[in-house]
Amino acid sequence: MGYVLKKAIRYIASFFAIICLNFALPRAMPGDPVMNLIGEDIYVPASKLEEIRSEIGLDLPISEQFTDYLWGILHGDLGYSYHLHGEVSSLILSRLSWTLLFVGVSVILGAVIGILAGALAGWRAGTLKSRFITCASMAVACTPPYFLAMLFLTVFAFKLGLFPFKGFYDEPTIWSVIHHLFLPVLVLTLFSASRNLLVMRGSVIQEKKSLYALYAKAKGLYDQNILFRHVLRNASLPVITLIALDFGFIFSGALFLEIVFSLNGMGTLIYDAIMGRDYPLLQGTFLVIAIAVIVANIIADILYAVLDPRIRRKDA
Amino acid sequence: MIHFERQGLLWYSGIFLLGIFIVMAIFPSQIAPYDPGERFMPYEEPESGHLLGTNDIGNDIFSELVSGARISLIIGFASAILTTIIGLAIGLTAGYFRGLADEVLMGLTDVVLIIPKIPLIIVLAAFLRPGLWLLVLVLGVFSWESIARVVRSKTLQVREMGFVKSAECMGFGSLHIMISEIIPNIIYVVTPKFMLATAAAMISEASLSFLGLGDPSMGSWGNMLSFAFSRGGFVRDMWWWYLPPGLCITLCVISITVIGFAFEGEDEGVRIE
Which residues 60-119 on chain A approach chain B with CB closer than 8 angstroms? Predict the structure, then answer.
């Protein structure tokens, strides 16, 4: 009971902190809050400005503004984009599924590859292959994702012409989508796998020294069996926490890749919002990303409990 | 996490690379052939007397690259110093006083840990349009969680040791004990985290600059890369324009990370086998 409650309070507090930030930012930042709330670079006559001011409730007392804001969010109202003339929530919804597909596939592939390759790299630490793969992962993890994307785009799309260089598809068939998404997914997977690999490797090196691994060896199990049956499960626990906390980071990486690969997802939406100073849209996207990260963390907690019976027992 | 020893090829190449970048940052005018603001023919290719050609407004790319080192390194290290100070203060307070302070501060850490940093920094930077020092502030203020956690757990160990107890018996104040007894004994877990924070801040800076947030006239490597992308250097395949700043960011971050991991490996007493 205590454990789940503590976690739940933590997530609710994070969500509340994010909402407060979102509420406070346009009102606290320099400049007229009306302009901060509708976005700059947009011409509004002075009379209309007053109209908008009362329409978004800026003339109300701050506590009332906050309850209105909270009420709106709970009903899926993220505000109105004066640039694109549409509800922020529907603008985001139309783009979100592509980005989630792109991020979801990459995170899952990155987790599987990172955990397996990291386990082998840690188990056989010191061999040439393991050293090479560790160094390569470090190099990838240290590269800004969009720069890596630019390199891949240059080599595989411009030079070799193997892949298209923009868009999600030419014709809406699954093969066209896979063909278009291959490069971006590859880059993001490499990125996420390399971070997981480094942590998994360290974790396996630690676990290798524990007594149960020695006992399994004494029992006469094959080397590979010890790793995949016993060590892998224990060693992957810190990686699962990492994957969840990293989700926001990978998601941000995806936004940059969408800009480089000209994919019409959340990333390009954010880019346009920055260029046009469309603050409501920008804040709405931040809120949606934050919610996605919180959901990813909850999923990781559940997964953790499935893998680690000690956590489950704490609850019983 | 990753264990390297403080010797061997990786360690020395890390030191060597970072050394080059630091020399570039300290003596840009001695190394760069031209002033980065000086204008020549635009879009020159590397053979034309400019080592790496010129960009769209005719600046010498190699000179820009050299003077970008100072900006990028300042942003990285300054935000990491800020991050470390905040993390150290929170971790020490939580670990030393325990009880309510610990509950509240670590609860706060857990809450902040979940908030996605780069999107938050993007939103903040969009409102603020920060220059160099404001950017350092924005990058430094939001990434102290991992330092705070490590510092707390080490402080919990160190505070039970004899010399801390004797200092307490001799009547020294808590602040004095934290600063002169505990910090010297936990600083070795902070050093690698400091290096990793520097690396992370440099990548964040490059990302923000790529989006055109931050000050475009700052002249960091991120700015150069962003211009190369948005002003046609990338589409026209002018590799001498977009490749050097990207490689500089990557190599600099790698060298800092390698040095950080080497410190980390040492304190855990684990060597690479």
Answer: none
